[in-house]
Amino acid sequence: MKNRPTKCVAQDAKFDDDDAVWKWTLTSQAVAPCYILDVHKMEKHDNKSKEFFWLGRVPCRFVKLVGRLVGIETQETKNKIVYTCTGGSKFYDLDDGTATIECIQRIRPAPLLPSKAETSANPSEQPRDSRPIGFLGSTAEVIGKVSAWGRGERMITIQEISECPSNSEPVHWRLVKELHCSRYSASIAEPFVVPKEPVASPAVASPAVVPGPSRILRADVQQDSVVVSSAKGKGVVRCQTPQAQSYGPEEPQSPSRHRLRHPARLRNRELTANTFRIYLKYYMDETLLAESIANEQGTEGDPEIPTNCLRRSAEGKRPRLPRMPGEDAPPQKRRRGNSEPPPELDEKDPLAFTLSNLRRVPVLKLMAGRVVAAEIKRRGRAESEKLRCAAAGANASRRPQPSVAKSVPSSRPSSLEGVSRKAKLLFHWAIIELLKEGGIVLWDGPRRAVDDGTSAEDEQKLWKAERSTADATGASLASDLTTTTTTTATANRMDSRAGSGASRSLATAAADALLAGEYPVSDPESDEEAYLPLTPALLAPRVRDAIENLMARPAHHRSDLTREHRRARGPPPGPTIPAILAHLRRDDRWKWLGEWHVEQAIELLTARKLVYSPLPGRWEVFDFVPSACLHLS
C-alpha cells in the first residue's frame, strides 16, 4: 500500500517580508518533491500579489511530481498554407495513487517548412514539441508551477516533463515520505531558513538572461536569508537582510564610455541647433547617472538608507548550501564575462528637469548663446551676399543702388531681451524634438528646483578630459571672442563699401553676452512641465503593470488574442509587444513611445526575473494570479 502524506498545517500568520520568500520560491532549491494530494492540500498565501503556497512549514511555488499518465489531450492550431503548428496546448492528467491533477504545457510555434510536399515526404522533420512525451499508462516526471483556478482547483503549468522508468515512482514515494518527516512537517521545532546570497561583483559576474521560469529552476540563484519560525502551527517570517527588487537608474557605466567635448571648444560650424539638442540630452543623461553614483557612495554602509544602484557585497563568497534531496541535475553555474550586469530597478523616481532649470545651467546657457550667435552670423553673411549680388546687378543695369540698411530685417536681435528670447526658443525646439523622437518623456513626479544645477567639480566630469576644462573654457572663449571681433571688423569694412550694416550687431553688447553666456533669463512660469530621459529602468515598471492589466482582462476583451486562444482551455497567454505599446500609448505621456523602448524594458525585466516568455512574442509576469482573470470573465 502506498504511503500517504501527513496532514499539512496552514501558515496563516502575517509575514514581515513576503517578497524575500516569494523570490526564493523561484529558485531551483525551492522545487519541492511531493504527492499530488499535497498539491491539493497546500494552503495559499494571503498576499494575492505574491502567489505561493505552504507545504507544511515550507513555502512552495514549483513542485516535482512522478506518476502515470491517465489522460492526454492536444489542442493545436496549424497554418493552412504550409500546415505547420502555430501554437496551442497539451493537457496531461497525472495520477500517483494519492490524487489526480491536470498539467498544461504550451506548444511553441514550429518553423515554417519549405513546402507542403516536403512536409508530407519527411514526417520525421515535423516538430516534436506538439507530440506527447509518452503514451497512456507510461510513467512521467513533471516539474511545474502550482496555480489556483476555479473554486479551489489546482493546476500545474509544466516547465519540464519527461518520460521515466516505472521504478522511478516508488523511489519518489520514499523520498517524499522522508521529506515529510524531516522538512515539510509543521511539528518540527527548528525554524525554516532561506539561504542568503552574496551579491556578485559587477566586474566579475554577469547574470544570464532568463527567458522563462524553466531557466530559473536550473539557475543557481540564492536569495536573502529569511527565517521562518513555527510556533503553535503559526508561521512567522523574519528577514535578516532584506533586499527587494527595485526600479531605478542604470548601473554606473565604465569610465571609458564616450564623452562629449565641452561646448566652449566647439567650432563655429559645429554650433547648430541639432548639436544643441544632442548636448541637452547628454547633459540630462549624465546628470542623472552622476547623481545615482553619488547617492550610492554617500549611503554606503548605512543600512537605513536605500541605495539606487546595485550594492556590492563586502562579505565575499559564502559556501553553497546543500541541494534539496531528490534533485538529479546539478544547478547551472552562472556565466562569467566582462559585460556589465543589467541595471537595478528602483521604485524611487529621480528628480525631473524643467525648462527654467535647464536654461539656468551655465554650460547649456553658454552653448545656447553661442548657437544663437553663430546662426545670426550665418544669416547676416547670407543677407550680405544677397545684397552684394543685387548691387552688382544694379550697377550692370545702371540702376540706382538699393539701400542696404532698409533691406535688413528688423526681427534680428539687437538687445539682450531679443537674445534671451532667441535662446529660449532654441530650448523649446530641442525639448519638442526630444519628445517626438522618444528621448525624453513628460513627468508629473518630483522636479528639481529652478536654480538646482551641477557644481563646477561635477561639471568637469561630464566632458571629455583632454585638458583642464576651466583652462580650455577660458582659452576657447578668449579665442572665440578675438576671432569674432576680427571677423566682425573685416565684415564691417566689406559691408561699408557696399553700404551694408548687416553684421554690426555681433559687435554690440548683445553679441558679447551671447558668447559669454551672460544674457538675462526670464522668470519661470507657474505651470511648467517637467521632463525625464526615457531609460529602460524608468519604463520597466510601467511595462510590467501593462502586462498585468492586459492579462487581467477577459479573453474576449483582448484584441491581441486569436480565436484559438479564446477557445483554448486554461488562462490565455500574455500580451505581445504591440499590445503592450498600444496599452501604454493611451496615456499622452507615452505618445511617442516606440516598440524598441518596450523591447529594451522587457529585456531588463527578463534579466531581473520579473517576466518571462511562455510563447514566442508573448510575455507574462511571474506573480500573476490566473484566478483573477477567471473571476473577471
From TrEMBL:
It comes from the Eukaryota. Residues 472-503 have a biased composition (Low complexity). Residues 256-266 have a biased composition (Basic residues). Residues 114-133, 237-266, 294-351, 391-416, 466-503, 556-577 are annotated as: Disordered. This is CST complex subunit Stn1 N-terminal domain-containing protein. It comes from Fistulina hepatica ATCC 64428.
